[in-house]
């Protein structure tokens, strides 16, 4: 049997919805209010956009946000971009019911040629959840600049993430981190990274994900995440500088926030 046929056979055997659920479960362990945060983002979209909008989800992983968005807005479409081949595979395989409404793009969102790779002329909404803290400050600033170009006037950017308080508010940051640690211990026990680790160990052990796991290991081998995460003031200033008129935190739980910026 050709190798491709074996891979395709493995794929049909797998319960991809269950993989999507596993991803959501471990993310929710770290972020117990994750669903409320998605809802807050969608409430903002409902206020500012018509029903048939086009959204871009930056670093969308397996498409958790996209699936929820399309359920809430049946006339919308979404492009979800990420550079993790395992999460892209889970996203693609678990979203076949959505057809073209949810499209996955394999790309590094910090690349200068991101707009060319996306192949989108214009979008109505740019969204992101639990992801942009992966970017160093200079890459975040450049990304916001590119999104200011891609979004149509009147469109909206919503970034949901743990966005640190600045140094002058360090006491609040300590509180936020202590609270986050309590949530993770409640979900996973004293070894707080076990939820994340268990997901990735299971993915490595899944034969249908063997090829994409190998590709992930190759891509992530030299990934440098030693940078300081961009603080709130930097996000707000970078968005203003990128041409966004109204920039505000519209939802917040300690340092977990949704920033909204209208183009
Ligand atoms: C914690 S996950 C969140 C995924 C998804 N947004 C969610 O809320 O479930 C962070 C995601 O950011 C992606 N990511 C980080 N840096 C990226 C980059 N430079 N380009 C594309 N994706 C990136 C990772 O691959 C991962 O899928």
From TrEMBL:
One of the protein's GO biological processes: methylation
Superkingdom: Bacteria
Keyword Methyltransferase: yes
Methyltransferase domain boundaries: 56-155
Matching InterPro entries: Methyltransf_25, SAM-dependent_MTases_sf
PANTHER family in the record: METHYLTRANSFERASE, S-ADENOSYL-L-METHIONINE-DEPENDENT METHYLTRANSFERASE
Protein name as catalogued: Methyltransferase domain-containing protein
Organism: Micromonospora nigra
Lineage of the species this protein comes from: Bacteria, Bacillati, Actinomycetota, Actinomycetes, Micromonosporales
